[in-house]
Amino acid sequence: MEGDTLSASAHGVDTKVLHAFQTSFVQVQGLLDQNRVLINEINQNHESKVPGDLSRNVGLIRELNNNIRRVVDLYADLSSLFAASSGGGGGRATSEGGSVGTIRQAGHKRIRSGMD
User: Fold this and answer.
1) C-beta separation of 66 from 113 below 8 A
2) pLDDT tens per residue, the chain (116 residues)?
3) Is position 57 within any domain?
4) Residue 90, CB half-sphere, CA atoms under 13 Å: how many?
């Protein structure tokens, strides 16, 4: 993708926004890689049917669920950032390059991860 890199100023996109996208996608990829490892270990423990391994799966599944929640939060933040940067006004981005706030939609409970 090196050749696909576009100049931020040429397309009217703030460099901070591009940096936030890149940072978020790196975090998402890290979480997805970690989830792959967790799923493999959960499967191995399940196949072994060893009581200690099966009880360890409880914690592993909890960690997997938390990671999935964090990925959802990151994508929600990216969506808000994209909407705010493209003039859609769907969320709020901080001007200091910090985290992006998400909005609570009617009927949807937002659970924030510990990464904020």
Assistant:
1) yes
2) 444 554 544 455 688 888 999 999 999 999 999 999 999 999 999 999 999 999 999 999 999 999 999 999 999 999 998 888 877 554 444 433 444 444 333 344 444 445 44
3) yes
4) 12
Phi-psi region of 87 (alpha: psi -120 to 50; beta: other; left: phi over 0): left
Residues paired with residue 92 on neighbouring β-strands, in sequence order: 101
Residue in the structure block whose two tokens are 């409880």: 58
Name the residue type at position 87.
G
Prediction pTM value = 0.64
Residue-number span of the structural domain to which 55 is assigned: 13-85
The domain tally of the chain equals 1
From the centroid of its chain, how far is CA 113?
10
Within a domain: 7 = no
Whether 41 is covered by a domain: the verdict is: yes
Cα–Cα distance for residue pair 89/66, rounded to 1 Å: 28
Cα-trace Rg, the chain: 18
Q: Does residue 24 sit within a domain?
A: yes
